[in-house]
Amino acid sequence: GIQLKDKVCIITGVGSLKGIGRATSLLFAHQGAKHLYLLDFSDENLPNLKSTIEQKYPDVKATVIQADAADDAAISGVCERALQEEGRLDVFFANAGIATASTIEHTPADVFNEVMRVNALSVYLAVKHASAAMKKTNSTRGKEFSGGSIILTASVAGIRSGAGSVDYSASKAAVNSMAKTAAWQLQRTDIRVNSICPGLIETGMTIGTFDYARQRGNDAKLGQLNPLGRFGVAEEIAQVALFLASDASSYVNGQNLAVDGGLTGS
Ligand code: NAD
Question: Which of 53, 137, 175, 241 is the most buried (most CB within 10 A)?
Fold first, then answer.
Protein backbone atom coordinates (compact mmCIF):
# COMPACT_ATOMS: atom_id res chain seq x y z
CA GLY A 1 0.00 0.00 0.00
CA ILE A 2 0.92 3.68 0.00
CA GLN A 3 2.69 4.44 3.26
CA LEU A 4 2.95 8.24 3.17
CA LYS A 5 -0.45 9.19 1.77
CA ASP A 6 -1.33 12.87 2.47
CA LYS A 7 1.94 13.47 4.32
CA VAL A 8 3.85 16.73 3.94
CA CYS A 9 7.58 16.17 4.43
CA ILE A 10 10.77 18.20 4.61
CA ILE A 11 14.11 16.52 3.84
CA THR A 12 17.52 18.21 4.09
CA GLY A 13 20.75 17.16 2.38
CA VAL A 14 19.10 15.88 -0.81
CA GLY A 15 21.60 17.22 -3.34
CA SER A 16 24.07 14.37 -3.68
CA LEU A 17 23.35 11.96 -6.57
CA LYS A 18 24.26 8.83 -4.59
CA GLY A 19 23.25 10.29 -1.23
CA ILE A 20 20.85 9.18 1.47
CA GLY A 21 18.73 12.33 1.08
CA ARG A 22 18.07 11.83 -2.61
CA ALA A 23 17.31 8.12 -2.19
CA THR A 24 14.86 8.99 0.59
CA SER A 25 13.21 11.72 -1.48
CA LEU A 26 12.55 9.26 -4.32
CA LEU A 27 11.24 6.59 -1.93
CA PHE A 28 8.94 9.05 -0.14
CA ALA A 29 7.60 10.14 -3.55
CA HIS A 30 7.10 6.48 -4.52
CA GLN A 31 5.14 6.03 -1.28
CA GLY A 32 2.73 8.79 -2.22
CA ALA A 33 3.78 11.72 -0.04
CA LYS A 34 1.64 14.76 -0.82
CA HIS A 35 4.32 17.45 -0.93
CA LEU A 36 8.07 17.12 -0.49
CA TYR A 37 10.15 20.18 0.47
CA LEU A 38 13.71 19.26 -0.48
CA LEU A 39 16.62 21.34 0.74
CA ASP A 40 20.34 21.38 0.02
CA PHE A 41 23.20 23.81 0.32
CA SER A 42 24.20 23.02 -3.26
CA ASP A 43 21.70 23.56 -6.10
CA GLU A 44 23.68 21.46 -8.58
CA ASN A 45 21.33 18.47 -8.58
CA LEU A 46 18.14 20.05 -7.23
CA PRO A 47 16.45 20.75 -10.61
CA ASN A 48 17.12 17.15 -11.67
CA LEU A 49 15.64 15.79 -8.44
CA LYS A 50 12.51 17.90 -8.85
CA SER A 51 11.96 16.87 -12.49
CA THR A 52 12.71 13.19 -11.77
CA ILE A 53 10.05 13.14 -9.04
CA GLU A 54 7.46 15.06 -11.03
CA GLN A 55 7.92 12.90 -14.14
CA LYS A 56 7.74 9.58 -12.29
CA TYR A 57 5.14 10.61 -9.71
CA PRO A 58 2.80 13.27 -11.17
CA ASP A 59 0.62 13.30 -8.03
CA VAL A 60 3.53 14.29 -5.77
CA LYS A 61 4.55 17.91 -5.41
CA ALA A 62 8.27 18.58 -5.11
CA THR A 63 9.61 21.96 -4.01
CA VAL A 64 13.39 22.33 -4.03
CA ILE A 65 15.14 24.93 -1.90
CA GLN A 66 18.78 25.95 -1.97
CA ALA A 67 19.66 26.83 1.62
CA ASP A 68 21.95 26.07 4.53
CA ALA A 69 20.37 23.51 6.87
CA ALA A 70 22.06 25.27 9.79
CA ASP A 71 20.46 28.63 8.97
CA ASP A 72 17.77 29.49 11.50
CA ALA A 73 15.71 31.65 9.12
CA ALA A 74 15.89 29.11 6.29
CA ILE A 75 14.62 26.26 8.48
CA SER A 76 11.85 28.26 10.16
CA GLY A 77 10.99 29.52 6.67
CA VAL A 78 10.53 26.12 5.09
CA CYS A 79 8.40 24.92 8.04
CA GLU A 80 6.22 28.05 7.76
CA ARG A 81 5.93 27.53 4.03
CA ALA A 82 4.63 23.99 4.51
CA LEU A 83 2.00 25.30 6.96
CA GLN A 84 0.97 28.10 4.61
CA GLU A 85 0.80 26.01 1.45
CA GLU A 86 -0.43 22.69 2.83
CA GLY A 87 -1.75 23.54 6.29
CA ARG A 88 0.40 20.85 7.86
CA LEU A 89 3.82 19.36 8.48
CA ASP A 90 4.06 15.62 9.14
CA VAL A 91 7.71 14.65 8.69
CA PHE A 92 11.06 16.43 8.99
CA PHE A 93 14.10 14.33 8.01
CA ALA A 94 17.18 16.27 9.18
CA ASN A 95 19.76 14.48 7.09
CA ALA A 96 22.26 17.12 5.92
CA GLY A 97 25.76 16.54 7.22
CA ILE A 98 29.45 16.85 6.49
CA ALA A 99 32.40 14.66 7.43
CA THR A 100 36.06 15.38 7.97
CA ALA A 101 39.02 13.05 8.10
CA SER A 102 40.78 15.05 10.75
CA THR A 103 42.85 13.78 13.65
CA ILE A 104 42.98 15.23 17.16
CA GLU A 105 46.27 16.89 16.34
CA HIS A 106 45.02 18.42 13.11
CA THR A 107 41.53 19.69 13.80
CA PRO A 108 41.59 23.50 13.73
CA ALA A 109 39.01 25.14 15.98
CA ASP A 110 37.15 26.63 13.01
CA VAL A 111 36.80 23.19 11.38
CA PHE A 112 35.50 21.72 14.65
CA ASN A 113 32.97 24.56 14.91
CA GLU A 114 31.81 24.12 11.32
CA VAL A 115 31.22 20.37 11.75
CA MET A 116 29.22 21.03 14.93
CA ARG A 117 27.27 23.79 13.18
CA VAL A 118 26.34 21.74 10.11
CA ASN A 119 25.78 18.40 11.87
CA ALA A 120 24.44 19.38 15.30
CA LEU A 121 23.07 22.94 15.17
CA SER A 122 21.14 22.06 11.99
CA VAL A 123 19.48 19.21 13.85
CA TYR A 124 18.55 21.44 16.79
CA LEU A 125 16.95 23.94 14.39
CA ALA A 126 15.04 21.12 12.70
CA VAL A 127 13.72 19.87 16.04
CA LYS A 128 12.80 23.39 17.14
CA HIS A 129 10.99 24.59 14.04
CA ALA A 130 9.51 21.25 12.92
CA SER A 131 8.02 20.58 16.35
CA ALA A 132 6.45 24.06 16.43
CA ALA A 133 4.90 23.48 13.00
CA MET A 134 3.76 19.97 13.97
CA LYS A 135 2.06 21.31 17.10
CA LYS A 136 0.12 23.72 14.89
CA THR A 137 -0.70 20.77 12.63
CA ASN A 138 -1.99 18.86 15.68
CA SER A 139 -4.39 21.63 16.60
CA THR A 140 -6.03 21.48 13.17
CA ARG A 141 -6.08 17.72 12.84
CA GLY A 142 -9.29 15.77 12.98
CA LYS A 143 -9.70 12.37 14.52
CA GLU A 144 -7.07 10.69 12.37
CA PHE A 145 -4.36 9.08 14.49
CA SER A 146 -1.13 10.31 13.04
CA GLY A 147 1.29 12.60 14.80
CA GLY A 148 4.47 14.18 13.53
CA SER A 149 7.76 12.36 13.02
CA ILE A 150 11.15 14.04 13.26
CA ILE A 151 13.98 11.87 11.95
CA LEU A 152 17.64 12.74 12.45
CA THR A 153 20.66 11.26 10.67
CA ALA A 154 23.35 10.48 13.20
CA SER A 155 25.99 7.75 12.59
CA VAL A 156 27.57 4.70 14.16
CA ALA A 157 30.36 7.21 14.86
CA GLY A 158 28.00 8.75 17.40
CA ILE A 159 27.61 5.41 19.20
CA ARG A 160 31.07 3.87 19.34
CA SER A 161 34.67 4.94 18.99
CA GLY A 162 36.95 4.06 16.14
CA ALA A 163 34.53 5.01 13.41
CA GLY A 164 35.18 8.68 12.85
CA SER A 165 37.17 11.80 13.53
CA VAL A 166 36.67 13.59 16.86
CA ASP A 167 34.63 16.49 15.49
CA TYR A 168 32.35 14.25 13.41
CA SER A 169 31.86 11.69 16.20
CA ALA A 170 31.11 14.41 18.77
CA SER A 171 28.56 16.04 16.45
CA LYS A 172 26.80 12.71 15.82
CA ALA A 173 26.74 11.81 19.53
CA ALA A 174 25.04 15.19 20.00
CA VAL A 175 22.45 14.20 17.38
CA ASN A 176 21.74 10.91 19.19
CA SER A 177 21.38 12.81 22.45
CA MET A 178 18.95 15.28 20.90
CA ALA A 179 16.71 12.46 19.62
CA LYS A 180 16.29 11.22 23.18
CA THR A 181 15.98 14.60 24.89
CA ALA A 182 13.60 15.99 22.29
CA ALA A 183 11.35 12.91 22.55
CA TRP A 184 10.95 13.65 26.28
CA GLN A 185 10.54 17.41 25.89
CA LEU A 186 7.86 16.80 23.28
CA GLN A 187 5.96 14.39 25.52
CA ARG A 188 2.20 14.23 25.03
CA THR A 189 2.39 16.19 21.77
CA ASP A 190 2.10 13.17 19.45
CA ILE A 191 5.45 14.10 17.93
CA ARG A 192 8.08 11.36 17.77
CA VAL A 193 11.82 11.95 17.44
CA ASN A 194 14.28 9.23 16.44
CA SER A 195 17.75 9.09 14.90
CA ILE A 196 19.17 6.72 12.32
CA CYS A 197 22.80 5.64 12.77
CA PRO A 198 24.11 4.42 9.41
CA GLY A 199 27.23 2.30 9.17
CA LEU A 200 29.41 2.53 6.08
CA ILE A 201 27.22 3.54 3.14
CA GLU A 202 28.45 4.22 -0.39
CA THR A 203 27.41 7.85 -1.02
CA GLY A 204 28.97 11.14 -2.09
CA MET A 205 30.40 11.49 1.40
CA THR A 206 32.34 8.22 1.29
CA ILE A 207 33.15 8.11 -2.43
CA GLY A 208 36.79 8.99 -1.76
CA THR A 209 37.18 6.02 0.57
CA PHE A 210 35.56 3.72 -1.99
CA ASP A 211 37.58 5.05 -4.94
CA TYR A 212 40.81 4.69 -3.01
CA ALA A 213 39.99 1.10 -2.05
CA ARG A 214 38.83 0.21 -5.59
CA GLN A 215 42.05 1.49 -7.10
CA ARG A 216 43.79 -1.05 -4.91
CA GLY A 217 41.27 -3.80 -5.62
CA ASN A 218 40.27 -4.16 -1.98
CA ASP A 219 36.91 -2.40 -1.82
CA ALA A 220 35.19 -5.65 -0.76
CA LYS A 221 37.18 -5.36 2.47
CA LEU A 222 35.39 -2.11 3.33
CA GLY A 223 32.32 -4.04 4.43
CA GLN A 224 34.02 -6.84 6.24
CA LEU A 225 33.93 -5.09 9.60
CA ASN A 226 30.28 -5.98 10.21
CA PRO A 227 28.52 -9.37 10.52
CA LEU A 228 26.79 -9.04 7.15
CA GLY A 229 30.21 -8.58 5.60
CA ARG A 230 29.30 -5.84 3.15
CA PHE A 231 28.81 -2.09 3.04
CA GLY A 232 25.38 -0.54 2.61
CA VAL A 233 23.69 1.57 -0.06
CA ALA A 234 21.60 4.72 0.38
CA GLU A 235 18.33 2.92 -0.38
CA GLU A 236 18.82 0.76 2.72
CA ILE A 237 18.86 3.88 4.90
CA ALA A 238 15.93 5.37 2.97
CA GLN A 239 13.82 2.31 3.83
CA VAL A 240 14.42 2.92 7.54
CA ALA A 241 13.59 6.61 7.15
CA LEU A 242 10.35 5.51 5.45
CA PHE A 243 9.49 3.25 8.39
CA LEU A 244 10.12 6.08 10.87
CA ALA A 245 8.16 8.57 8.72
CA SER A 246 5.16 6.27 8.35
CA ASP A 247 2.48 5.35 10.86
CA ALA A 248 4.00 1.84 10.96
CA SER A 249 6.43 3.22 13.57
CA SER A 250 3.76 5.00 15.64
CA TYR A 251 5.12 3.61 18.95
CA VAL A 252 8.84 4.05 18.15
CA ASN A 253 10.16 7.14 19.93
CA GLY A 254 13.44 8.45 21.36
CA GLN A 255 15.52 5.75 19.67
CA ASN A 256 18.97 5.76 18.06
CA LEU A 257 18.46 3.10 15.39
CA ALA A 258 21.67 1.59 14.03
CA VAL A 259 21.49 0.50 10.38
CA ASP A 260 24.97 -0.90 10.01
CA GLY A 261 24.92 -4.57 9.07
CA GLY A 262 25.38 -5.42 12.73
CA LEU A 263 28.59 -3.42 13.34
CA THR A 264 27.41 -2.06 16.69
CA GLY A 265 25.50 -5.20 17.67
CA SER A 266 27.00 -7.09 20.57
P1 NAD B 1 26.41 13.07 0.81
O2 NAD B 1 27.62 13.91 0.94
O3 NAD B 1 26.27 12.19 -0.39
O4 NAD B 1 25.10 13.95 0.98
C5 NAD B 1 25.03 14.97 1.95
C6 NAD B 1 24.28 16.16 1.37
O7 NAD B 1 24.16 17.16 2.38
C8 NAD B 1 25.02 16.81 0.19
O9 NAD B 1 24.13 16.93 -0.90
C10 NAD B 1 25.44 18.18 0.73
O11 NAD B 1 25.43 19.21 -0.25
C12 NAD B 1 24.39 18.42 1.79
N13 NAD B 1 24.82 19.40 2.78
C14 NAD B 1 26.02 19.48 3.42
N15 NAD B 1 26.05 20.54 4.23
C16 NAD B 1 24.84 21.15 4.12
C17 NAD B 1 24.26 22.29 4.72
N18 NAD B 1 24.93 23.05 5.59
N19 NAD B 1 23.00 22.62 4.37
C20 NAD B 1 22.31 21.87 3.48
N21 NAD B 1 22.80 20.79 2.88
C22 NAD B 1 24.05 20.43 3.20
O23 NAD B 1 26.44 12.14 2.11
P24 NAD B 1 25.41 11.07 2.73
O25 NAD B 1 26.22 9.92 3.10
O26 NAD B 1 24.19 10.89 1.91
O27 NAD B 1 25.06 11.87 4.05
C28 NAD B 1 23.77 12.00 4.61
C29 NAD B 1 23.86 11.92 6.11
O30 NAD B 1 24.27 10.58 6.46
C31 NAD B 1 24.91 12.85 6.74
O32 NAD B 1 24.37 13.43 7.91
C33 NAD B 1 26.04 11.89 7.10
O34 NAD B 1 26.82 12.37 8.17
C35 NAD B 1 25.28 10.65 7.44
N36 NAD B 1 26.05 9.40 7.43
C37 NAD B 1 26.60 8.90 6.30
C38 NAD B 1 27.34 7.71 6.34
C39 NAD B 1 27.98 7.12 5.12
O40 NAD B 1 28.73 6.12 5.26
N41 NAD B 1 27.76 7.65 3.95
C42 NAD B 1 27.47 7.03 7.56
C43 NAD B 1 26.89 7.56 8.69
C44 NAD B 1 26.17 8.74 8.62
Answer: 241
Q: Is residue 265 part of a domain?
A: no
Q: Judge whether 44 lies within some domain.
A: yes
Quick one: which atom of ligand 1 is closest to the CA of 69?
19
Catalytic residue among 37, 57, 168, 251: 168
The pLDDT tens digits for 247-260 are: 999 999 999 999 99
Range of the domain at 132: 8-204+233-259
- CA of 183 relative to ligand 1 center, distance in Å: 23
Q: What pLDDT, in 10s, does the model give residues 54-89?
A: 999 999 999 999 999 999 999 999 999 999 999 999
Q: Is residue 246 part of a domain?
A: yes
ipTM of the complex: 0.99
19 ligand 1 Cβ < 6 A: yes
* CA separation, residue 149 to residues 2, 34, 76, 99, 138 (Å): 17, 15, 17, 25, 12
Say how many domains are in the chain.
1
Q: Could you confirm whether 124 is annotated as catalytic?
A: no
